[in-house]
Design a protein that fits this description.
Layout lengths: L1 H22 L13 H5 L1 E7 L9 E6 L6 E3 L3 H20 L1
Antiparallel strand pairs: 1-2, 2-3
Length: 97
Amino acid sequence: MELKVAFVVVCLFALAITFTEAGIPKCCITTKRDIPLQVLRKVQRWTVQQSSGACDISALLLYVRNMRKPICAHPKVKRILISLQSRVKRNKQKAAY
């Protein structure tokens, strides 16, 4: 009977540890300002990290094709990224005609 209790307690601890690790946010510690245009063209999506939340600094997380980890960029890079993506979209529309 004691072995079963010990097994249940170990399972509950393992379950608690996995759930608490999932709740810990992954924050950017530093940001990059100089990101090459070749990398910015491969950005699939991005998210904004706010300094008012669990993280200490504001950052832009860039999810790049063929890269495992996101790039932590300075929030001002978002303006460059939006203009670059709108230019690409315009060029695709011109090519469709």
